[in-house]
Amino acid sequence: MARGTRCDAIRSYLSGKGGAATRVEMRRDLDLNEDQFDGAACTLIKQGHVRRVGRGAYELVPGGAPREAVIEQRIWKAMSINPTWSVNDIAFQSGTTASYIYKRMRFYREEGYVKPAGERPLPQGSREKLWRMSFKGRQLQERPAPEVFQPDPLIVKTVALNRLICTGLAQRFEEQEKEALQLARDIAEMLSSRRENAR
After folding, report:
1. Is 173 helix (H, G, I), strand (E, B) or coil?
2. What is the pTM of this model?
3. Residue range 98-125: average pLDDT?
4. Tell me: the pLDDT tens digits for 145-187?
5. Widest pairwise Cα distance in the chain
6. Which residues are 131's β-sheet partners?
């Protein structure tokens, strides 16, 4: 699972858990090793989507998107004022991580806002890709709006089912048992539908 996907999985998981969960729960339920979880959690904290609320506990930050909008504006401005640039240049100038810039670059490149501009040598003997704004990108007065995060409904339902089963509520109370059965039917239907769409 790529880092961006792990970040989205953690955000979806937290949404399904009412906005908060422990590190142990998330690592177990999302099948993440320590490094994968720490990398994704660090990215989410830097971007202002998640905060640590105790030893091994995290929660979604209400209104995390406005901070992302500020970062997006800084990225767009840095790309606009430099004739050519590398991902590391933009990360440094906008105050974010190179991994986040790579994520945004996929979107900008697919939309045709940036294009390759050659390479430059690095002191270690390797080379670094350079980029520039395309004509289409320069025509935009404002940055393109970033995609709005929506939790994956499948993950939200799976987390809710997991909570009902693991806490024993579904085994002890009839109403929670019905809710768990409905969630299981919904999950099965969603998985079947996604499998059909993938064909």
Report:
1. coil
2. 0.43
3. 88
4. 555 566 778 888 888 888 888 888 888 888 989 998 998 999 8
5. 67
6. 85, 116
Using alpha carbons, select from 167, 164, 174 the residue that is nearest to residue 187. Answer: 164
DSSP, res 48: T
Both tokens of 22, joined, read 């422990």
For 150, the token pair is 């929506």
pLDDT for residue 89: 92
Per DSSP, helices labelled H in the chain are: 3-16, 23-30, 34-46, 64-81, 87-94, 98-111, 135-139, 153-166, 169-172, 174-198
Q: Which two tokens stand for residue 8?
A: 């989205």
Helix axes 3-16, 153-166, angle to 10 degrees: 50
Max avg pLDDT among 6-10, 19-23, 114-118? 114-118
Q: How far is CA 137 from CA 74, 77, 130, in A?
A: 15, 11, 16
Instruction: Report d(CA 70, CA 68) in Å as an integer.
Output: 5
CA–CA distance, 102 with 91 (Å, rounded to integer) = 9
| Residue-wise burial string across 84-95, b where 16 or more C-beta atoms lie within 10 A, e elsewhere | ebbbebbbebbe
Number of other CB atoms surrounding residue 46 within 10 Å = 16
DSSP lists the bridge partners of residue 114 as: 133
> 184: how many CB neighbours lie within 10 A of its CB?
16
